[in-house]
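Sanity check record (used in CI):
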Amino acid sequence: MKLHLVVLFPLVTISCFGQYFHRRANAPAETVSFMKDLYIKPSEPVLRRSAAFKKAIKVPLLLTVASFYTMTDNENFSRAEVKEERDEWIPYFHHKADNYLQFAPIAVVYGLNLAGVKGKHDLRNRTALLFKSELLVAAITFPLKKITAVPRPDNGMRNSFPSGHTAQAFAAATFMSKEYGHLSIWYSVSAYAMATGVGAMRIMNNRHWVTDVMAGAAVGILSTNLVYLTHRYKAGGKQNRPQTLVMPSYNGQVGMVTFVRTLS
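Expected output for Phosphatase PAP2 family protein:
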């Protein structure tokens, strides 16, 4: 009896699998397509969103890793070594150009638009994208300054990490690149050159460590990339439905919540 059961079980199993594959081969096209889409691969929109998200965080992630690397006591590239080189070669350097250069890409974008050079988006969407990018930069930068409490290299105030000027500059540079980079690569090159100049000047002015500057660049690029990735575009000057935006921020002393309500 046990021998019969042992022989019978494989035969029944083979028979069931044979019937399954026979039905699968003769199933309607709609059923096969459904099973293929459901179990084999995700939909194209999901793949596109995933690829876009990976692209948006790639550079900020690399900058963040580099920033943390400079915090370590290594012989290749550390914040202490950069500070020593700065103190040796330009100990008395001081210039305020970075206070204004951080906003230069934004001025260029609206200046080009006024000159008749059309960007990627209309005035309404462009301004909304910029506004949300600025809010996100502030929402990330100021709490991090408070939480990390890194002393500045010049006066010891514990609000050095990350660099707010650099975050602003790279958010603006990414904004300019998004709006005009498709017309010519030189728009992107010039935008990021200005932002890099701001970061360099923050170190030269002895206001920030190189660690702070790299982290600030990561925050700025990431903020604008995420805003562009998630923005709901509106055309024709009309909105389909009311929208609400709530954004917390902190300036090191006062907490604030910004509430924006757009009506149709």
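Residues 105 and 172 are 6 Å apart (CA to CA). If this sentence no longer matches the regenerated tokens, the check is flagged for review.
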